[in-house]
Design brief:
Strand content of chain B: 15-25%
Number of domains of chain B: 1
Distance between the termini of chain B: 33 Å
Number of strands of chain B: 10
Strand order of the largest sheet of chain B: 6-7-8-3-9-10
Largest interface: A-B, 22 and 30 residues
CATH class of chain B: Alpha Beta
Distance between the termini of chain A: 63 Å
Number of helices of chain A: 13
Shape of chain A: flat
CATH superfamily of the largest domain in chain A: MetI-like
Helix content of chain A: over 70%
Oligomer: heterodimer
Bound molecules: adenosine-5'-triphosphate, magnesium ion
CATH architecture of the largest domain in chain A: Orthogonal Bundle
CATH topology of the largest domain in chain A: MetI-like fold
CATH superfamily of chain B: P-loop containing nucleotide triphosphate hydrolases
Number of strands of chain A: 0
Structural class of chain B: alpha/beta
Largest sheet of chain B: 6 strands, mixed
Largest sheet of chain A: none
Helix content of chain B: 25-40%
Order of helices and strands of chain A: HHHHHHHHHHHHH
Order of helices and strands of chain B: EEEHEEHEHHHEHEHEEHH
CATH architecture of chain B: 3-Layer(aba) Sandwich
CATH topology of chain B: Rossmann fold
Strand content of chain A: under 5%
Radius of gyration of chain B: 18 Å
Chain lengths: 371, 247
């Protein structure tokens, strides 16, 4: 009696128990994984050869470089490991099936398919890495030279960092202002009663305008417009101050909406609880609703901060000397974009610790209880 | 003059009539229990008395003062009328002690040290002083509900409104909360409570009111309402309760 006979034996109605079927043969998938792995290994060696030539052109070849390249070449074989395991399990699955051992046949088939997919996904990842590497060494290292000319990056780093202080200055002050202005606008939107109607309307108009207005246009208008108006005090403000004003106007509109969503997410019974104790509307907001809302909106708030930090790069259109503007000057002096890459890296790097910090805050509060 | 006078109040929720000429009086030191089917307006009545819900018509007077309609300082009213809700709405972001002292400090402007001492004294009375620095979600339902009662009591209210304060609790936790209410009744606190605990209502109430059809359908001393109700509707409601094994 074969496995499939056994399966149908208990079947009396003509319907089939599908789960009793023998497992599909995984050999084809395993062989595919092997084939893909071999092709990728061959392509890797080709790329490594190109890389070797490029290094030679840069006079960076030598024993150390050769050793690294050889290690990478061996590493390129790594996807073949799970592929071989897949083949082996496929074989033992077939043996088990011959002995009518359905259970072990299934286990081996599952393991074989798993190993094959692990191998294939490793190969795919490797392929993407190869494409990126080829991109960088193509055309006689043109890409690397244009974006990552290390000596130039190193040489201009102090200049860039110094200019980046302007960005930090702008976003630190703007963030504090945005937190305050956004909250005021959000609370204005909740002003109760008939008397609150004009206030609510103002808040809505403000949000609608500044959420829709592109930040770059806002910065342009504020930065060039206000000094043209000749208004006392305001006209003498620095470029950085105009940038702070414009970014605060734009981002407060977003942050007000974040606050609003947070406030609305607090259950109405919390307002009832606070009001029933005799707290006024403002006290209820201040001690009960806003503190709970703030805890919930920390992640979206951080997102808007990161976006504000990135927006500081827009101030170069009004000529403020920020890191991006400095990098552009360096780039045009050297006909090379590496300094701009430095700025790009700095922008990315400063956001990462913030994201981790928020993860920590959220986790700690969860552990301590009390939301 | 009754301490709470409710005269002919009407209230609609978008076409749905909750009160249709409801009248009710509560004397000082009385404990009045509101009973009635779900949705008959027990919670709404308590919320109206506390000024959390406006009424459409009629008036509510407390200590002779009209407290509905224009020109009423609801914040002042609420200092004298404490309310505890069905779902204990403690503030989840504050410790037990902060929950209890928030209103005395912010509303009554009591110095923090004094407010905390008074809060600890009350917490000690209910055996929860060691939970003072915990957050509400680390307390059992019964403990949370007792903290909610303390939070209302610390304002030294003249009247307490209790809205089905045991309905969200497991049976074993009910008794500790009811014991606290019993103590309050013994101390002479005027209380109006909505409840489904008929046995308890029978024990502590000076008066029981059966709400039905937007009115007080029948009222009287507990022995009469539970022992010999006059109205047919009251009888059928109590029969259901007895069938459900709650009396
Ligand atoms: N904010 C509201 N908006 C619309 N309808 C409401 C509102 N609050 C209460 N109601 C309605 O008013 C009626 C009375 O509600 P209430 O909460 O006072 O009932 P209850 O007697 O306390 O019931 P339960 O015993 O279930 O707590 C119900 O029909 C309810 O649906
Ligand atoms: Mg209710």
């Amino acid at each position: 009696m074969t496995a499939s006979d056994k399966m149908i034996a208990s079947d009396t109605t003509g319907r089939r128990w599908r789960f009793g079927a023998p497992p599909k043969n995984p050999t084809k998938l395993a062989l595919t994984a092997i084939a893909v792995g071999v092709i990728l290994a061959a392509l890797s060696w080709l790329t490594l050869d190109n890389l070797y030539l490029a290094l030679k052109a840069l006079e960076l070849d030598g024993t150390a470089a050769t050793i690294i390249l050889v290690i990478l070449g061996i590493g390129a074989l790594y996807p073949l490991r799970p592929a071989c395991r897949s083949i082996a399990r496929a074989r033992s699955s077939r043996r088990a099936l011959e002995q009518n051992d359905l259970v072990n046949a299934r286990i081996d088939t599952a393991a074989s398919r798993d190993a094959a997919w692990i191998s294939i996904s490793l190969s795919v990842a490797l392929a993407i890495v190869l494409i990126v590497v080829e991109f960088f060494i193509a055309n006689d290292l043109a890409v690397s030279r244009t974006f990552f000319l290390l000596p130039l990056m190193w040489e201009t780093l102090p200049l860039i960092l110094e200019a980046f202080i302007t960005n930090i200055y702008i976003f630190l002050i703007a963030e504090v202002l945005v937190l305050v202005v956004g909250l005021i606008v959000a609370i204005a939107r909740f002003t109760p009663g008939e008397a609150g109607r004009p206030i609510r309307a103002l808040a809505v108009i403000y949000t609608d305008i500044f959420r829709g207005l592109p930040a770059i246009i806002n910065i342009y208008l504020v930065g060039f417009g206000i000094s043209l108006t000749g208004l006392p005090i305001l006209k003498d403000c620095s470029q950085e101050t105009f940038a702070i004003i414009a970014l605060t106007l734009t981002n407060s509109a977003y942050v007000a909406e974040i606050y609003r969503a947070g406030i609305e997410s607090i259950h109405w019974s919390q307002i009832a609880g606070a009001r029933s104790l005799g707290l006024t509307y403002m006290q209820t907001m201040r001690f009960v609703i806003v503190p709970q809302a703030v805890r919930r909106i920390i992640p979206p708030m951080l997102n808007s901060f990161i976006s504000l930090q990135k927006d500081t790069a827009l101030v170069n259109i009004i000529g403020a000397m920020d890191a991006f503007n400095q990098a552009k000057i360096i780039a045009s002096n050297h006909f090379n974009l590496s300094a701009v890459t430095t700025v790009a890296i700095i922008f990315v790097v400063i956001t990462i610790p913030q994201a981790r910090l928020v993860d920590r805050l959220v986790e700690r509060r969860r552990l301590a209880g009390g939301m | 003059m009754a301490l709470i006078e409710i005269r002919d109040i009407h209230k609609n929720f978008g076409g749905h009539t909750v009160f249709n000429g409801m009248s009710l009086e509560v004397e000082e030191h009385q404990v009045v229990c509101l009973i009635g089917p779900s949705g008959c307006g027990k919670s709404t009545l308590l919320r109206c008395i506390n000024g959390l819900e406006p009424i459409d018509n009629g008036e509510i007077r407390i200590h002779g003062e009209r407290m509905t309609g224009p020109g009423v300082d609801v914040n002042a009213l609420r200092r004298d009328v404490g309310i505890v809700f069905q779902s204990f709405n403690l503030f989840p972001h504050m410790t037990v002690l902060d929950n209890v002292t928030l209103a005395p400090i912010q509303v009554l402007k009591v110095p923090r040290a004094e407010a905390e001492a008074r809060a600890m004294e009350l917490l000690k009375r209910i055996g929860l002083e060691q939970k003072a620095t915990s957050y509400p979600d680390r307390l059992s339902g019964g403990q949370q509900q007792r903290v909610a009662i303390v939070r209302a009591l610390v304002m030294d209210p003249m009247i307490m409104l209790l809205d089905e304060i045991t309905s969200a609790l497991d049976p074993e936790l009910v008794s500790e909360v009811l014991a606290m209410v019993r103590d309050l009744a013994r101390e002479g606190m005027t209380m109006l409570l909505a409840t489904h605990e008929m046995g308890f209502a029978r024990e502590v109430a000076s008066k029981v009111c059966f709400l039905y059809g937007g009115k007080v359908h029948e009222e009287g001393p507990p022995d009469q309402i539970f022992g010999d109700p006059r109205e047919e509707r009251t009888r059928s409601f109590l029969r259901q309760i007895i069938d459900a094994g709650r009396l």
